[in-house]
Amino acid sequence: MTRLLFLSLVLALVACDSRQASSAPVAELGIEKRFPVRMGVVLGQLQIAATDLEKARGLMGVTKLTDEQGMVFMYDAETRMSFWMKDTPLDLDIAFVARDGTVLEVRTMTAGDTETTSSGSDQVRFAIEMRAGWFGHFGVKAGDKINIDDLRAALKARGFDPKRFIP
Question: Over pLDDT 70: what percentage of the chain?
């Protein structure tokens, strides 16, 4: 009887343990993962920023990017986009991309700049940040295509429904 009482007490204490696994949504646990995405004829390795928190953080605090590393910001509607470089210690290029994957324009942003860099179009669906000079160095320019199938696969791997971002 004593053993049964002791076992019941132990089980009750374990069941009442308030420690929980991370409260972050499952999708946010993979922000550090990079996915292969073809941009023009070049294969990059992009982090996927799909939640509001991920997009707000962006590449803040990142001090080094290799040639293939960058981040794509995913949105669920076309809009004019604006970005700034607060707390971002690297100069970056940003490509504003239409929903079909067409690069609309590429702009360069300066580290720490709190002025916004805005797209010239209100038909932007995605934005891709790479180290400054990357797009010019690899010949990716307005009119080139970002591989939408690569983005779909990356979103799905992160646990997002690709149809939310790519119609």
Answer: 83
Domain that holds residue 125: 27-165
Strands, E assignment, 69-109: 69-79, 82-83, 92-97, 103-109
pTM beyond cutoff 0.85:
no
Domain count of the fold of the chain: 1
List the beta bridge partners of residue 127.
Answer: 73, 96
123-140: burial string, b at 16+ Cβ within 10 Å, e else: bbbbbbbbbbebbeebeb
In a domain, 65, yes or no: yes
pLDDT tens digits for range 55-81:
999 999 999 999 999 999 999 999 999
Give residue 41's region: left, alpha or beta (phi > 0; psi -120 to 50).
alpha
